[in-house]
Write a structure and sequence with these properties.
Number of strands of chain B: 13
Strand order of the largest sheet of chain A: 2-8-7-6-5-3-4
CATH class of the largest domain in chain B: Alpha Beta
Strand content of chain A: 5-15%
Number of domains of chain A: 2
CATH architecture of the largest domain in chain A: 3-Layer(aba) Sandwich
Number of helices of chain A: 13
Helix content of chain B: 25-40%
Distance between the termini of chain A: 57 Å
Helix content of chain A: 25-40%
Oligomer: heterodimer
Distance between the termini of chain B: 14 Å
Number of helices of chain B: 15
Largest sheet of chain A: 7 strands, mixed
Order of helices and strands of chain B: HHHHEHEHEHEHEHEEEEHEEHHEEHHH
Low-confidence stretches of chain B: none
Mean pLDDT of chain A: 96
CATH superfamily of the largest domain in chain A: Type I PLP-dependent aspartate aminotransferase-like (Major domain)
Structural class of chain B: alpha/beta
Largest sheet of chain B: 7 strands, mixed
CATH architecture of the largest domain in chain B: 3-Layer(aba) Sandwich
Low-confidence stretches of chain A: none
Order of helices and strands of chain A: HHEHHHEHEHEHEHEEEEEHHEEHEEEH
Chain lengths: 453, 485
Amino acid sequence: MPFIPHTEADVREMLTTIGAADIEALFSEIPAALRTRALEGAPQALGEMEVGRLMQQRGARDGRPINFIGAGAYEHHIPAAVWAIVTRGEFYTAYTPYQAEASQGTLQLLYEYQTMMANLTGMQVSNASLYDGASALAEACLMSVRAHRKSRSARMLAPATLHPAYLAASRAITEGQNLKFDVTPYEQASGLTQLAALEAHRGQDITAVVIQQPNFFGLLEDVDAITDWAHANGALVIAVVNPLSLAILKPPGEWGEKGADIVVGEGQPLGAPLSSGGPYFGFMTTRQELVRQMPGRIIGRTVDLDGKPGFALTLQAREQHIRRSKATSNICTNQGLLVTAATIYMTLLGAEGLERVAAVSQARTTELVEALTRIAGVKLMFDGPRFHEAVLQLDRDPAGVLRALASRNIVGGYDLSRDYPELGHALLVCATEMRTREDIDAYAKALTEILAG
Amino acid sequence: MIEPLIFTHSRPGRSAAAQRPQSAPTPAVPEKLRRKRRAALPEVSELQAVRHYTRLSQLNFSIDTHFYPLGSCTMKYNPRACNQFAMLPEFLGRHPLAPAEVSQGLLACMYELQEMLREATGMKGVSLTPMAGAQGEFAGVAMIRAYHRARGDHERTEIIVPDAAHGTNPATATMCGCTVVEIETLADGDIDIEGLKKALGPKTAGIMLTNPSTLGVFERRIQEVARLVHEVGGLLYYDGANLNAILGKVRPGDMGFDVIHMNLHKTFSTPHGGGGPGSGAVGVGQRLLPFMPIPVVGKEGDSYRWLDERDLPQTIGRLSAFMGNAGVLLRAYVYMRMLGREGMQRVAEYSTLNANYLQARLRKAGFDLAYPQRRASHEFIITLKRQAKELGVNAMDFAKRLLDYGFHAPTTYFPLLVPECLLIEPTETEAKEELDAFVEALIAIQREAEQDAAKVKGAPYTLPVRRLDDVRAAKQLDLVYQEGG
C-alpha cells in the first residue's frame, strides 16, 4: 500500500477505539446507491522503478530539441543552487504561512522577494505572487477598476501587440465583471503603438491603458509618451513587463512624468524552467496608495510579544477567507515555490548578473537575426530597438517550416500567422544567453536547406 | 527574526560570479528607454546565498519535518519520485509552444491524467488548465454561466452557497458576476433542505457544495439536493477540496454534480510549496463539455494534440498564458500511477480511518466534538468553546501551544459557524504513533490550561518568534525593506 503506514494490528486497534467493525463501516453515511464499484478504468499500481522507467521513456520521446521560442516563456541558465534549495522539504512541503511562528522561513523569503520586485520595477509595494503573467494582467485590470473611483466605464485600452494569450485570458477572467477591452492597432511599419492610435479614444472614459514592454514582437515601445498620454486622459497605466528586461530597461515606476500605476508580468525568466508552460508565477507591484486594492497574499514585517522583528501575512481583510463575496479576488493558493526560486535566483545573479543575462540575450538574438536573414526567403520585419525577440518574414507558411525544423531537432520559433494574419508568413524568434554560436549556425543551416527544398 | 535579511549580507562588488555570463556587451537600448540606476538587489557570494536560504528553510514547519493536520488542506506525504520524474530534463526544457510533434511524451501523460481523473470522479470530460483550486472554481462557475447563457437563460445569476463553505466559493461567484445566496446548515451538519427550497427559483444558476462538507461530514441528502436544484434548472458545482475523503468510494458524477474542481495539491499529493503552485483541474458532465477551459488534450489515433477554440468554440476561454501548471500535473500523474486503482480507494479508507481514530481518542480524552453524533470523514472539528469560557484559553491558544509540542496547528476558526474550532485532518500517510502523540499533546495542553492558563496564552515559546503583532503589521505597513531600515 503505497505511502500508507498502517499495520494490520494498527488497523484492528484503531477500529476497536472507534467502535467500528471494519473500515467499510466508516462510510455508512454515504447512501448505498451512490457507492462506487472498483475504479475499473484506472490502471494497476506501478512501483517507483516502473513509473521512473515509463517517465524516462516519455521524456525521451520528446527529446531535447534546441529551442528558439520565447513568446512569453524564456530559457535561461538556472544556478544549480536554486532548485537544490527550493526542493528542500521545508520549503517544498510547507503550506501557506497561516501559522506565522512556524513559517518564518517562507514569510521572510517572501518579504525579501517583495523588496526585490519593488526595486526591480521601481514601485513601492509588491504582493507575494499571482498564478502567471496572463492571469496577473487580468487581476491588474480588475484592480484598476477598484482603484480608479472616478472612472465608470471599466474600459481597458490594450495594444494589439500585447501577448495574445494575455488578452484572451484577461477577457475570460474578467468577463463576469463586465470589463471591456478596446484593442488599439500597431503601426504597420514599425510594429509599435503610436499616439495617433490612442488619440482615437481621446475624451472617452478609459479606466486603464495597458502597455507591454517589450511588446509581443520584442520591440521597445515609447513607454514615456504612452504613459503620459494615459494619465493626461484620466486613465491608470498597467505595465506588462519581462522582469529580466528591467535589468537594462527603464523600470515602469519611472515611465513618463508619473510612472505606471500597476506593474505585472510573468516571473518565469527569474529561475523557473520552461517546464512545458508552468508552474510559473505572476508578479504584481504598485504604488503605496493602491496597496489595499491589490489582490493576493501580502507579507508584512512586524514585531512579536518580546518586541523581536518577525513576519506575518497582512492586510488579510482584502482576502476571500475574511471578506468572502466582497474580497478583492478569489485567489487563495498562489505560486509560493516559484517565488522561492525567483528570490534565490535574483540573489545569486544580483543586479549586475541580471544585466549581463539581458545584454547577452539581446546580443544573441541580434546574431540570430543576422544569421537567418542572410538566407534567401527570410527577411526581418520591424527594425527598431528590441530586447531579445524578433519577427522574421518567411517566403512560405511558417507551420510547415517549423515542422521540418522540429524533425531536425530545432524548435524554430512561434508562428504569428494565426494571431496576426496581416503580417503574412511571420515567425517570432528568440535567443537567450543559453544559445551558442553553434546552435545559431545549426538553425541557419537547417533553415537554408528547408527553404531551398 | 533570527536570520538577518539577505540585504544585510550585501557588500558592493561582491557576487556569485559563476552564475553570470562571463562577459557581456553593452546593452543596445536607446538612452530614453534605458535603466539609469541598478535595482537594489543583494550582492552576495554563492555560499552566503545558499546558507541564508537554507537557514530560512529551517525556520519552517513542513510535512517532511512535522505532523501538519491542517484541516481542508490535505497535508499528506509528497512522494519524492513525483518531483524527480516531473523534473526530467526533457520535461523541464520543453517550451510550451513547441510543436506537438516533439511533445507526444508529455501529451500522453496529460491525456492519461485526464482519463484517470475522469474515472475517479465519474465525469465526462476534464480540463487540466486551472492553476489552483480557486481558478478551478472560477472555471466551474463560468461554465455554469456560459451554459445558461447559451440557452438564452440570461436571468440565472444566483449562486447558492452554504454558510459552511470555503471563502473562495462566494468570492468566485462574485468574480463571475453572480450574486450569492447563502443557506444555513442544520445542527446535524446537513444542509437545511427547507432553506434550500426557499432559495431555489428561476434565478438559480447553481449551487456550490463541498461533500463531505467543511464540517467534516458527508451530506447525506445529496441526491435530494441534486434533484431539487436540477428541477428548477440549476446546476451543481462540486468543490473538490475534500475529495480525499471519498476517492474511490463515491464519485461526484454519480452524486449528480455537473462540474467539479479537484485540488491536485491536496488529493493527488503535489507539494504545497509554501503556498502554491496548486492545480485546480476541472471535470464536467455532458451538459458542460462544450464550455471547458482551453487547452484540453485530445487523442486522434495514436497521436495527441492540444484542443483549442477551434475544437471547442463555446469554451469559456483561456485562464493562463499556456496550459496551466504542467509540472504540477506531471507530479499528480506520477502519483496516480503509483497508487493505481486500488491505491486510490485506500486513500479514502485510511484517511477516514485516521480521522475517526483521532476523533474517537479526543472524545475519550474529554474534548468536545462539533458533530458528536456523526461519523468523521477525512477530517473533523473539535470546539474549544467550553475551554474559552471556563479557562479563558481559546482555540488560537491551543493552536499556538501545539507548535511548542512540535505539531503544526490544525485549521483554526474555520468553518466560521463553529465557535472556537479546530478543523483536524490527519491524512492517510500518518502512522498511528504520530496520531497518538498528537492526542497526548492536546491532553497535556488541556492540563496546562487548567493549571496555568497564562502559560498556554503566551505560547509559543520555542519557535523563532513568539506571537506576532498582527495589528501593527496592518497599521504600520512594512512590506518592503528600505536601506538602513
